[in-house]
Amino acid sequence: MKTKLYFNWSSGKDSALALYKLMKSDQYDVDLLFTSVGKETQRVSMHGLREELLIQQASSIGIPLDIMHLPKSPNMDVYNQMMEEKVQQLIHKGYQHTAFGDIFLEDLKNTENNN
């Protein structure tokens, strides 16, 4: 049985490569993409991609997209609270696993190595 997970989609090349590998794997069932977008800018927080193109990406990939709209210049407390609420919603929907494709973020690498 495949492990169900949602994918933290940044819309960039590293994210695309990681998603591709997960989708080709016999171990994982990626059935949701999750992305944060600036409410005011309507752009992906990580790469600045316009929201309309983000939606087209997800449609082309064929996986539903869940967008969390961030307020203008949220501080870390606001961001963390919003993420906690979103993760709790996803857990309530049955998700116990997630994946990232942002390979150059040292804090993500360090978290992975410590688990």
Number of helices: 4
The figure for the number of domains is 1
Low-pLDDT stretches: none
Shape: globular
CATH architecture: 3-Layer(aba) Sandwich
* Ends apart, CA distance between termini: 23 Å
Q: What sequence of helices (H) and strands (E) makes up the elements?
A: EHEHEHEH
Strand order of the largest sheet: 3-2-1-4
What is the CATH domain class?
Answer: Alpha Beta
- The averaged pLDDT comes out at 90
Fourth-tier CATH superfamily name? HUPs
Do you know the CATH topology? Rossmann fold
User: Structural class per helix/strand content?
Assistant: alpha/beta
Task: Estimate the helix proportion, in percent.
Answer: 40-55%
Please characterize this protein's 3D structure:
- The protein has 115 residues and is α/β, with parallel strands linked by helices.
- It has a single domain (3-114), classed as HUPs (Rossmann fold, 3-Layer(aba) Sandwich), CATH 3.40.50.
- It contains 4 helices and 4 strands; from the N terminus they run βαβαβαβα.
- A 4-stranded parallel sheet has the order 3-2-1-4, with helices on both faces.
- The longest helix has 17 residues, at 76-92.
- The model has no long low-confidence stretch (mean pLDDT 90).
